Amino acid sequence: MTGVDLTASLDQTTVRTIAEALSIRGVLVFPNQQITDADHVRFARCFGDVGAFRQQADRTSAVQEIFRAGNVDGAGNLLPPDGVQAQLLKLNWSWHIDSSYRAVPTKGTILRGIEVTAEGGATMFANMVAAYEALPAAMKRRIHGLFARHSFEFLVSSRGLPPMSAADAARLSPVEHPLVREHADGRRSLFISPPYIETIVGWSQQESLALVAELADWSTQDRFTYSHTWKPHDVLMWSNEWTMHVVTPYDLARHRRVMHGTTLLGTGPVQPAMVA
Question: What structural domains and CATH numbers belong to the chain?
Answer without folding.
Answer: 12-264 (3.60.130.10)
